[in-house]
Design brief:
This protein has about 270 residues and is an alpha/beta fold. It has helices at about 10-25, 40-45, 55-60, 75-80, 100-110, 140-150, 165-170, 175-190, 195-215, 220-225, 235-245, 245-265, and strands at about 5-10, 30-35, 50, 65-70, 90-95, 115-120, 130-135, 155-160. It contains twelve helices and eight strands. The protein has an eight-stranded mixed sheet, sandwiched between helices. Bound molecules: nicotinamide-adenine-dinucleotide (NAD). Nicotinamide-adenine-dinucleotide binds next to helix 1.
Length: about 270
């Protein structure tokens, strides 16, 4: 990609994105520019051969795609700071949780290509599940650009902004549900006599492998479940306990409750 990539805010997410883009070859390290109010964060970016710069305006002058990767409460401030320097070549990509396209537009101006992305924490290990929506002057070319970038760090889907709360409830908050599930599975293994470390590894690898089977085969998860439940076998005995405990309803309720909370906070 010949685009230059800038980061306003060089924290955890910015680092994960930049490293992912470079590792997967979607951009070269010398085409990445980043700034932060904390010098140590700029030093981190220098350590993998990208260009730390001193001001947010310098990022905008140096790059075409500008990631807004500060905490949500600072988004308006940094956009207002750089707004006079925004041009048609710029695509602004905000990853800040809960900051709407309307408030991005209010801070950045009407004539800006805006993309709002909701990533999740596994971005830090190159496996994010993200969604994006477009605002301002952004068009399909901006969506394609952002898709190419996020393909390097996971998967991204385009949705209407009104569905971003549901994305927050599912994939945004989802890692916590799965961490809880892995912990509980590991506890089950320990209850059944496994050493803690082996039990946790088995639990995590089981989640990883099962997710990979769903993605790689494209089969309905119910069909994959049926394939491993033999008549009167061990697995159906376990599944029966999960059904008695209302596990499905608990997951549905969790996603729905988190979605409603995201709506309340928006
Ligand atoms: P972080 O605290 O690691 O990074 C933010 C960085 O912005 C910090 O290094 C901070 O020094 C810098 N900063 C603050 N004010 C600044 C300013 N005026 N100019 C330049 N830099 C400034 O946070 P993070 O976890 O990387 O999150 C960044 C954004 O990503 C947040 O808006 C968050 O909502 C969003 N997000 C994070 C996750 C996640 O899993 N961490 C998931 C989804 C969305």
């Amino acid at each position: 990609m010949d685009k230059r990539i800038g980061f306003i805010g060089a924290g955890q997410m910015a680092e994960a994105l930049a490293r992912g883009f470079i590792a997967k070859g979607v951009c070269r390290a010398e085409h990445v520019f980043a700034t932060d109010v904390v010098q140590a964060r700029k030093d981190v970016f220098r350590s993998f051969n990208t260009n730390p710069v001193d001001t947010n305006v310098e990022v905008v002058k140096s790059a075409d795609v500008i990631f807004i990767a500060v905490k949500p409460q600072y988004v308006s401030v940094v956009l207002q700071e750089v707004r006079a320097h925004l041009e048609d070549r710029h695509t602004i990509v905000s990853i800040a949780a809960g900051i709407t396209l309307q408030s991005l537009k209010a801070a950045a101006g009407d004539n800006v290509r805006l993309v709002r992305v909701m990533p999740n924490t596994p971005c830090l290990v190159g496996e994010t599940a993200a969604a994006m929506c477009l605002g301002g002057k952004a068009d399909d070319s901006d969506a394609e650009l952002v898709r190419r970038l996020f393909d390097a760090v996971g998967k991204i889907y385009r949705v209407d902004e009104k569905l971003l709360s549901a994305v927050t409830g599912l994939s945004g908050s989802g890692p916590a549900y799965i961490f809880l599930m892995i912990e509980a599975l590991a506890d089950g293994g320990v209850r059944a006599g496994l050493p803690r470390d082996i039990s946790q590894q088995l639990a995590a690898q089981t989640v990883l492998g099962s997710a990979k089977m769903v993605l790689d085969t494209g089969k309905h998860p119910g069909a994959l479940k049926d394939m491993v439940t033999s008549p009167a076998g061990t697995t159906i005995a376990g599944v029966h306990e999960l059904e008695k405990a209302g596990t499905r309803a608990a997951f549905i309720n969790a996603v729905y409750a988190a979605t409603q909370r995201a709506d309340e906070l928006a």
